[in-house]
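Need tokens for this chain, all 753 residues.
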Amino acid sequence: MERFFLSLVATLSTALLAKSSPYVDSLSGTPTQGYTITLSVGTPPQKVRVILDTGSGDLVLRTPKIGTNHFQPNKSSTYVSTRKPAIIAYMSGSAVGHVGSDVISTKSLDFVANASFLVTEDPLPGVVSESATGILGLAYSGLAKPIGVVTPLFDVLVSSGGLQNQFSIRLCGVNATSNLVGSIILGGSNSSFYVGPIYYTPIKRELHYEVIITRIRVGGVDLNIPCSQYNSKNTIVDTGTDKLLFPENVYNSLVSLIKANSNVLAPEAFWRLGTQLRCDPNFDFSAFPDISISLLSSQGLDKELNLVIGPKTYLRFQSKNNKDGTCYSFGVGVSNTGSILGLAALDGFYVAFDRANKRIGFAKATCEGEKASQLSSRVDAPVSRVPHNCAYQNLRGEPGTGYTLNVSIGTPKQWFKILLDTGSSNFAVAAAPVEQVTSYFHIEDSSTYENLRKSVGVDYTGGSWRGTLATDVITSPDALSSNVSSPIRVRLATIAKSEKLFKDLPMQGLLGLAYKSLAKLNNDRTIVDSGTTTLRLPTLVHGKVVDLIKTKTTLINSSSSFWQGGRTLYCWNPDRPEFDRFPTVTLDFLSSEGDNGDKYFRLTVLPQMYLQAYRSVEDDERDCYKFSILPSTSGTVLGAVVMEGYYVVFDRENERVGFATSTCEIRDSSFEKPTVAGPFTRQDAKDCRYDSHSVTSASLVVIYVSAAIIGVAIVAIAIVCAMGRIQRRRRRTVSGSAYRELNDSTAISTDSS
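Here are the structure tokens for all 753 residues:
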């Protein structure tokens, strides 16, 4: 009987804790500021209005010494300061302050939650109105800073208040000319706030609310851009951004179609800069077309739902007066951080953030005063689509920096950019503020971290690091393999000291993908190394290759510093590229298809591969390039300039590496791609391998490569193309400092296996 009674009490307690109906709070705001919610903070409660931001993870409260309507910590008996400094980065700037905690609630909640947040005396980034005195981040905990110290408020409400892991937002700002109105539903959904069914799109990664765009149309006309470009870097749903933002090439195509499908004549300042408004006493929205954004449907990879965004939504109200009438700005812009579905896309929708089922739902919101019209935003039911991979590429990087993968380490997750390095076999992450690294692994904040108390270190030709061997759990949702999307425990080195390792490289760690034995061996060899950005050749070979290139090029009085990969750059006007002044380099490799080394195949390395884009501070108006074929004292290194444009298979089981031309998109069809040709029969089957004592399974040497390069040839070309990611890329800034490169002649001081 006693056991039954205890079980009944536990069941009733759980039922009471999990509230059956969600809590509903009102939202208000302005078209230029966004939506705000009123929070009660502290004891006694202080009312503060905070901007609703699904694009960040922190609650930030402004606490100036002078002002009203701000949170005042000294007037709350329950406020606790941790005195721990923190910096929260936003698109429009940063919030700097320290972490504190207090009890927090909303008007509808019947309980209070103790949560941590950032307090700052500085103005909030992007907040232009004094009516809003804080920012409420509703994204996942991976965005909350500092890692392991701050838990997002909504996560606290779910864990302490028993809310379902879902919230929904009704946004009624379509064509708003004064105050915005809306609602937030904490812990579920409310069917009275929308019409029709809710159609869902999957959340790709639980950091931001990342989704996948499959298609974009303007006035029914498809942009006809490869869908992966829509999701370049990522695509997020962000109520903290007032605009609808796209990568520049997508934006340019979209605006061109809007201009072609409308009767609007407006200057460039209206379309791109947003500095000029369009005003009219009788503003005619019908002159502008609808924008349709299709998203991957949760019903399957062969389905897509369609958000139709009317001009009443993407044209944002700015002002109204008797002289000019009603004035609007163009709410679509350019982003260098991916696509962002901000309020210029979301107003008029009911958006359900169903975190429990990793999906976001859209329905037409029920907003007072809005008349059903073809100009209003709506959601179309999922339809069939040809299943292309529209996800953004999981490897990212800039010219001269290599490619990185997003990896989380520890519990709770701490996110880092990890350089993929096929020239080494160590997994290492910065665990201290080494060099210019500011975002590093805080081992004390991870509950799953285990120190193996073993000192390790690696020396490269261009840098070194020292640290401690440990284990922890990692995830990488960007990786395609499902068994990597779930946490796995691995060994890793936590870097405490480094020299010339992270200099000018946007990464916090390295993931070595070579064989295990490379952690102990360092012999001259020919390797395929994604961790090196250049093509490196033995000094004698390099000299002959450069001499041949010079004889084939039409450059006059080129500096010797340029040919040695120094600070001297070669520049030209953006509208007149000069790749055709440089020859193509071809590399011949032994083929796995031959017997006794009698077969080879050939790779082309185009000028737009071995000329890496950089930005010169002295010549900012022109496109500048660095020569990236460099001498080496530790063998031949086939770095990123050779690998870019190819699909590279590291078939470790069969001890071979394969090359094929990749399916990377090319913006200009007149550009050619690098090619793989062969196999051909060798007339002189000489043994081109390096000394046998240095041939090991640790060397990933190069259809399929079984030894070293057997020939280098130079041929002239007259057609140019944009390589790397097969597009014009952002360029690194070059100042007076020398270049430092991450080259992998690896020697490990202690066994890390």
